[in-house]
Design brief:
Helices cover 38% and strands 20% of the residues. By secondary structure, it is of the alpha/beta class. It starts with a helix and ends with a strand.
Length: 494
C-alpha cells in the first residue's frame, strides 16, 4: 500500500448501495434513499436505500426460508468452511478498496483502518471457518442403560446491528461465528457507516454463500432496527452501540418472542498508572494512542487516565508531549495519526462534553476545539482534561470522542475505587512492576478485559465482553460461538 494507490481510489465515484435481500440488490419498497456524507469534507459521497418496515420484514422472511430449507445449515461442515475461507480470501484481495471506502464513509485514519477493518475481518472470518468443524457435541456421564447426547445446533435467524466506528471488524465478529454455526443472518449496518460492510456482504455471495443466508438492509434504526427487534422470526439479536439503543432492543425482545439479546455497549475504561510502571515514557505514549486513535471512537478506549499522585504532573506532561506529536487531518493520508470524527453531530457532542468538564472544575491542558473547519470535514483536537472528579460527567458518561479525563490517586485501594466508580465495565489497564499488584488489579477492577503494562491489541483468541452496563455475552474467541448455538439433549434408553 502506498499513497498513490490510496489517492487513486479516493477519487473514484461511489455508486449508490441498495439492500441485499435473497441474493439480489433491491431498493427501498417506497424508493426512498439516504445521503451519505463523508466526514473528510462534509460532502455527499453517495446514497443508500432508506429501508422500510416492509424491507426488513422481507429480509427476515428470506433468512427464515433459507434456514428452514437448510441450504446452508444442512451443508457439511467442510463445505461451509470452504465458503468462509473463500470469503476471507476475497476480503484480503479487496482490502485496500474496502479500507478506502470505509475511511471515506466514517473517517478512520487509513493506517489504522487497513489493519483494523479488512485485515481484522478476514482474520476473524478465517478463524471461525477453521473452528467450525472442530466444535463437537458431548456425551453425558449417565447410567449404563442410558446414552445422553448433547447436540450443538444453530439457533436459526440472527439479527445483527453494527456500529459506525469499525463496521468491518465488528461486523465480522458477529457474522463469522453466526454463519460458521449454520445460522442465517439479517444485517443492519449503522446509518453513518454502512458502505464497506455492504460491500463485504456482496463478497460473501461471490464466495458462494447461498442467497438468503446473509441479508443486509440499510436505513434508520428507529425503523428497520426496531422492526428487527420486534420480529417474531428473529431468534437472536446481537448489537454493538449505545446503552440507550441496547435498552430498547431488550424491551423489543420482551414485547415480541423473548429472543436472546447480546449487547456490547461501550464503557469508560480506566487506564491506571502507578509510579513503579516499568517504563513511564512508553506508558504515556500508549495512553495517548489508547484514547486518541480513530478520534477516540472505539469502545475500549482508555478514556479515564488514573495516575498515582507522586508522578501525576510529570506523567501528564509526557502524555501531552505524545499527544502533540500526533497529526490530525485527512484520514486518507498515510502520515495522519488521527482522522475525522464520524459526523458533525458527534463532533458537537464531543465539544459539549469539554464545555461541561470545564464547568465542573476540569482543567483543559491540551486541545478542546474543533479544527480544520475550512475543509468542511469534522475534525477535533485531541483533548486532555485534568482535575476530573469521580462524580464528574467526564467520568460517568461515555464521550466516544478524543477526550481524555485525568484523575490522580494516592493508594492502590483508591485507584480501585476510582476505576470502579462508573456503571460500565468493558476494559481497563494497569501499569506496574509489582506482579502481585498487577494480579490484584486484574481481580479487583470490574471489567471484561484488563491490560497489564499495555493497552489494546488483544486478538481474536480471547473474548471481548463487558460487565455492568457495558453489556453481556462475548465477541471474539471460541466463546462467541455460544451465542449462536442451541444445546439439545438426546436422552436415549438402551
Amino acid at each position: 500500500m502506498d499513497q498513490s494507490q490510496i489517492d487513486a481510489l479516493r477519487t473514484q465515484p461511489v455508486l449508490p448501495f441498495n439492500h441485499l435481500i435473497n441474493g439480489r440488490h433491491v431498493g427501498a419498497s417506497d424508493g426512498a434513499r439516504m445521503e451519505v456524507l463523508s466526514p473528510i469534507d462534509g460532502r455527499v459521497l453517495t446514497s443508500v436505500a432508506k429501508g422500510t418496515v416492509a424491507d426488513m420484514e422481507t429480509a427476515i422472511a428470506s433468512a427464515r426460508e433459507a434456514f428452514e430449507d437448510r441450504r446452508w445449515a444442512g451443508q457439511p461442515p467442510a463445505a461451509r468452511k470452504n465458503v468462509l475461507m473463500k470469503w476471507a480470501q476475497l476480503i484480503e484481495e479487496n482490502a485496500l478498496e474496502l479500507a478506502v471506502l470505509g475511511v471515506r464513509d466514517n473517517g478512520t485514519e487509513i493506517g489504522m483502518a487497513i489493519k483494523a477493518e479488512p485485515g481484522s475481518a478476514a482474520a476473524t472470518i478465517r478463524y471461525y471457518a477453521e473452528a467450525l468443524d472442530k466444535i463437537y457435541g458431548e456425551i453425558a456421564s449417565t447410567p449404563t442403560d442410558v446414552l445422553g447426547l448433547i447436540h450443538k445446533e444453530p439457533v436459526g435467524v440472527v439479527g445483527a446491528i453494527t456500529p459506525w466506528n469499525f463496521p468491518l471488524m465488528i461486523g465480522a465478529w458477529k457474522l463469522g461465528p453466526a454463519l460458521a454455526m449454520g445460522n442465517s443472518v439479517v444485517l443492519k449496518p449503522a446509518e453513518t457507516a454502512s458502505l464497506s460492510l455492504m460491500r463485504m456482504a456482496e463478497l460473501a455471495l461471490e464466495a458462494g454463500l447461498p442467497p438468503g443466508v446473509l441479508n443486509a438492509v440499510t436505513g434508520e434504526g428507529a425503523v428497520v432496527g426496531e422492526t428487527m427487534g420486534l420480529s417474531m422470526d428473529v431468534d437472536v439479536l446481537v448489537f454493538t452501540g449505545s446503552g440507550g439503543t441496547g435498552r430498547r432492543l431488550m424491551e423489543y425482545s420482551a414485547r415480541s418472542n423473548m429472543k436472546r439479546v447480546y449487547l456490547e455497549l461501550g464503557g469508560k475504561s480506566p487506564n491506571i498508572v502507578f509510579a513503579d510502571a516499568p517504563n513511564l515514557l512508553e506508558a504515556a505514549n500508549v495512553a495517548a494512542a489508547g484514547i486518541f486513535r480513530n478520534s477516540g471512537q472505539f469502545c475500549v478506549a482508555g478514556s479515564r487516565l488514573l495516575v498515582e499522585a507522586t508522578i501525576h504532573d510529570e506523567f501528564v506532561a509526557e502524555v501531552v508531549k505524545a499527544t502533540s506529536a500526533m497529526r490530525v487531518g485527512d484520514p486518507l493520508r498515510l502520515d495522519t495519526h488521527i482522522g475525522a470524527v464520524n459526523s458533525e453531530t458527534q463532533l458537537l457532542a464531543n465539544i459539549g462534553f469539554v464545555e461541561t468538564a470545564i464547568a465542573e472544575g476540569g482543567q483543559v491542558v491540551y486541545g478542546g476545539e474543533r479544527m480544520l473547519q475550512e475543509t468542511g470535514g469534522y475534525y477535533m483536537t485531541p483533548t486532555i482534561v485534568t482535575d476530573v472528579k469521580a462524580d464528574a460527567t467526564l467520568t460517568q458518561k461515555e464521550v466516544f470522542g478524543p477526550v481524555l479525563g485525568v484523575t490522580s490517586f494516592e493508594t492502590e485501594d483508591e485507584a480501585v475505587r476510582l476505576a470502579n466508580a462508573t456503571v460500565y465495565g468493558l476494559a481497563g489497564g494497569v501499569w506496574t512492576s509489582n506482579l502481585s499488584r498487577a494480579h490484584r488489579m486484574v481481580r479487583n477492577v470490574r471489567t471484561g478485559v484488563m491490560h497489564v503494562n499495555t493497552y489494546g491489541g488483544a486478538d481474536g483468541t480471547v473474548p471481548l465482553g463487558g460487565v455492568g452496563q457495558s453489556g453481556n455475552g462475548s465477541d471474539k474467541s471460541l466463546h462467541a460461538i455460544e451465542k449462536y448455538i442451541n444445546l439439545k439433549t438426546a436422552w436415549i434408553k438402551l
